[in-house]
């Protein structure tokens, strides 16, 4: 595993564009810190400071930071599809296979790289969240601090699943720009599935249950938007604000299932393709 990971890291770090995109993808999560220190002047009457509103209290901070950090995943997605595009354009894929690397090892090297950078990103956002929480949170009990750290697990699974999807699209079309365009096409397809299910079942609730099994939607559902939850803490008497924001085991299982499918299909594409 380490040999394959080291081989892939050497390729990435020798590529100037990849190095810049990796750097940007790891720097952007630090904007969460800027968010915590943001002060909004409301028409000159008073200053609204997010850090003083309790939105960075434990345990809600794990939900908030992982949700925002996940929005920056597209930068490393470009790196993932570029890994494949560069292999074909630079003929390094064929050379690797000539040098003794099997097709299975080639796909595994990409997957190990995805897991490696996803874990680094998860550790980084975990440390950022912990530091912000310790500074702003009104609660410092150990059990409260660790409560809902399962959002970090969801964040890791979400990144690995999304990047595995990008890897599959990269293998499918061999071009970075087209691979990213396929993400938009898949997004449209999932909404078509939703409307088809709506026509069959006659209600949006059942249609969304079907859509929740689709790749992009299942990844999104791992970490639901936290804004409604924040509103719930400010207006606890408004029952209409309540919603299920919990990370469920079956949501993680769905994304892990899609991840396995994407890696397997990537391998099958490579195995059948004439290089």
From TrEMBL:
Q: Which residue ranges traverse the bilayer? A: 20-40, 60-84, 111-136, 151-170, 177-198, 249-270
Please provide the record's keywords in A-Z order: Membrane, Transmembrane, Transmembrane helix
- In terms of superkingdom, the source organism counts as Bacteria
List the protein's name.
ABC transporter permease
Organism from which the protein derives: Litoribaculum gwangyangense
């Amino acid at each position: 595993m380490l040999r394959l990971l080291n081989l892939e890291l050497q390729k990435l770090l020798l590529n100037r564009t990849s190095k810049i995109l990796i750097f940007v993808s790891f720097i952007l999560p630090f904007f969460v810190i800027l968010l915590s220190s943001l002060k909004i002047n409301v028409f000159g009457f008073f200053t609204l400071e997010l850090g003083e509103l309790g939105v960075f209290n434990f345990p809600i901070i794990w939900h908030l930071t992982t949700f925002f950090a996940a929005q920056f995943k597209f930068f490393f997605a470009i790196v993932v599809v570029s890994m494949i595009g560069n292999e074909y354009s630079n003929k390094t894929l064929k050379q690797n296979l000539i040098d003794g690397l099997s097709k299975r090892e080639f796909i595994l090297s990409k997957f190990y790289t995805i897991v490696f950078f996803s874990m680094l990103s998860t550790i980084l956002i975990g440390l950022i969240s912990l530091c912000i929480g310790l500074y702003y949170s009104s609660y410092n009990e150990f059990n409260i601090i660790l409560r809902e750290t399962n959002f970090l697990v969801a964040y890791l699974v979400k990144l690995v699943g999304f990047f595995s999807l990008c890897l599959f699209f990269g293998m499918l079309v061999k071009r970075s720009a087209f691979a990213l365009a396929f993400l938009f096409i898949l997004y449209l397809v999932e909404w078509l599935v939703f409307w088809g299910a709506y026509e069959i079942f006659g209600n949006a609730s059942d249609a969304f249950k079907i859509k929740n099994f689709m790749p992009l939607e299942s990844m999104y559902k791992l970490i639901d938007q936290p804004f409604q939850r924040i509103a719930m803490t400010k207006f606890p008497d408004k029952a209409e604000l309540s919603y299920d924001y919990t990370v469920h085991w079956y949501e993680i299982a769905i994304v892990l299932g899609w991840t396995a499918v994407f890696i397997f299909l990537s391998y099958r594409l490579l195995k059948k393709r004439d290089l």
